[in-house]
Design a protein that fits this description.
The complex is a heterodimer. Chain A is built from 15 helices and no strands. Chain A is mostly helical. Chain A has one domain. In chain A, helix 3 packs across helix 4, helix 5 packs parallel to helix 12 and helix 10 runs antiparallel to helix 12. Chain B is mainly α. Chain B folds into two domains: 91 residues, Four Helix Bundle (Hemerythrin (Met), subunit A), CATH 1.20.120; 46 residues. Chain B has seven helices and no strands. The chains are: A mainly alpha, B mainly alpha. The interface between A and B is medium-sized, with 27 and 25 residues.
Chain lengths: 386, 171
Amino acid sequence: MNPAMSFLDSIFVNLKLWTLNLIGHFLPGWAVILASIVISGVVILCLGPVIMMYLTLLERKVVGRMQNRYGPNRVGPWGLLQPIADGIKMFTKEDIVPTNADKVIHLLAPIVIVVPALMVFLVVPFGRDMTAADLSIGVLYFIAVSSVTTLPIFMGSWASRNKYSMIGGMRTAAQMISYEVPMTLAVVPVIMMSQSLSTASIVNAQEGLRWFVFTPWGLAGFVIFFICTVAECNRPPFDLPEAESELVAGFHTEYSGMKFALFYMAEYMNAFTLSAIAVTLFLGGWQGPFLPSWVWFFTKTFALIFAMIWFRATFPRFRVDQLMGIAWKLLLPLTLVNMLVAGLWYFIPGITGWVGAAVILAVSFLGLTALNKPVIPEKRVYLLEN
Amino acid sequence: MDILNFGIKVGIYALMAGTLVLAVGVVTLRNLFHSALCLAATLIGTAALYLVFHAEFLAAVQILLYVGAVVTVIIFAIMLTEHIAERSVAQRNRQSLPALLGILVLIAVTGRILLKTPWAVNPATVGARVTVADLGAALMGTYVFPFELVSVILIAALIGAVIVAKKEKSS
């Protein structure tokens, strides 16, 4: 790697070190430790909302283009100031709380939902040595923290005292719990192969172009994981919790102004972090030739987000029973087979293991889809008595 | 460093106090849904305490299993039970005295066990960090029999749930 490249590669790490050195000249040691935590914290706290703001713009632009229109283009060049205008609009809107609502929990729900969304940023490796906190249990931490997201949605839906909110909340809970199972199990082969739970060492295990997605179990795991992430952040085609044509707006029907914006913020930040974790686990994280590590990371993450937006523009919504069926009857058995295949691939090196693993996966996928064929009821003919 | 250590100490005690207050809330609040939320907060507080004592794996599992699964099931049960989520329900019944006796016995037994256990407190055990790899090796090595037994029981429970939930065929 040439010096200019390595300078660009570690520019953020060096910036932080330089700031800490500067502080170290005239402040005691404990203040420097505190400052190191505060700097990482502030960067993450700013990064989350900024990413969310521009994701909304990206989504509206891309969906607009896919639907043969321009999308927002009035505020600033190419509509770049649109998110800021939206933010100001959200702040100045009236905050309406239903009369019979449980006031405290109605207020708490949108605040609480942002917390796990921001906490996941802590273990995302944005680039070489750019993990805010390289926990030894990184992946487990991510799974645990994102499983808490169900609670604030429940709180919001129950506190609103609204039937649509309630149905939306129940749907969310059922959906998120169901998809958490295959999502967690899809991660297991990655942990088996990299022999670590820390996100940074999982990326290190995919050195060069040995990304996990280029193996049979990695490809299957990646597809399963990505489907589950789309379902986890309630995006189309899994957006039953807020299906606007059925439930007004689902669990956040009774929210307005900034509280509504917080729900949206959590949703977009989840979309980003889940894509980032998918990139970390399967697409080699920041590994890649020529470009600085963080450029690779953001390119891959935004490619996945683009796929999510593409899903939204092209797929119709699932029915509730289909949604549950995919999670429990297709994805869950497939992840179990995938774990077995990963072990096989590891112990039979060379082309034999490769082909064997691919064949087992393909056969089990075809078998499962054949077993899951919907039962088409017999055609009934009613003769009119005459 | 002293100021930092002092701050950490104050933080830990505040965390413990907050967890206790929320735990009291679980048993005194009259609204079942509020109680369930307090329970979730208490469990998160406990997980944070585990984190303070360097048991990261235990903390993550605590949040994943208790907050992510058990509390969600409890809330599901409350919401699916007709009208129970809306009404305030009395938290006491006439069995306070037997309950008190039971708790006193429990405290006595646990206290006795705690006092009788020879805690191996020496510099080596205080500094020890149990990693996930150690836990895995223990589960797959020393404790492989209980581990397999638990997994068989869980499979049985899963199959049982499927059979119970299965629709009976109308004859």
